[in-house]
UniProtKB/TrEMBL annotation:
Organism: Chitinimonas lacunae
Entries under Pfam families matching the protein: Acetyltransf_1
EC category: transferase
UniProt keyword list: Acyltransferase, Transferase
Molecular functions per Gene Ontology: acyltransferase activity
Protein name: GNAT family N-acetyltransferase
SUPFAM superfamilies given in the database record: Acyl-CoA N-acyltransferases (Nat)
Length: 163
């Protein structure tokens, strides 16, 4: 299955909101708190994508298969955890595309983009209730690093890029 990665075009912002909402539901079992985080009508989230999209340290991409957007990636080339490491805010595939072996392609894209920014690895936060994501991350080389200081109960995982 051939995938392509394109910077997010805000003409597809409703897809961003849909994917973010599903991701939040998968992670936390509800969307309570998401509206406050995204702002009225998602405006705060839209502004983040717009502003960060102009900053070379950030990556906001849609994952396409043919003429369909099937996923979304959000990451940056710095982290609070360790200098020289990036941070992944979102690995997302639409439900119909999960479990099809596509994650390594997404991970490789993010790895290559962060390596181009001189990162040696990346971190991400994952909720322990998102068991499917946890299994996927662990299967593909991510390991527990620390408890999340921003979201009690969640964990920070790290992935050191292969040499």
């Amino acid at each position: 299955m051939r995938l392509r990665f394109e910077k997010i075009d805000l003409a597809h912002f409703s897809v961003c909101v849909q994917f973010r909402t599903d991701s939040y539901q998968c992670s936390f079992g509800s969307t309570m708190g998401l509206a406050e985080e995204m702002g009225p009508d998602g405006q705060r989230y839209r502004e983040k994508i717009e502003l960060r999209g102009r900053d070379a340290r950030w990556g906001y991409y849609h994952v396409w298969q043919g003429d369909e957007i099937i996923g979304q990636l959000e990451f940056r080339s710095y982290s609070e955890q360790q200098e020289g490491w990036g941070y992944v805010h979102l690995f997302y595939l639409a439900p119909a595309f999960r479990g099809r072996g596509l994650f390594p392609t997404l991970q490789d894209f993010v790895t290559d983009a962060l390596r181009a920014q001189r990162c040696r690895g990346a971190f991400l936060s994952v909720s322990p209730t998102n068991t499917r994501a946890l299994r996927c991350y662990q299967k593909h080389g991510w390991r527990f690093f620390d408890d999340s200081p921003k979201r009690p109960g969640s964990a920070i995982f790290c992935y050191e890029f292969p040499a």
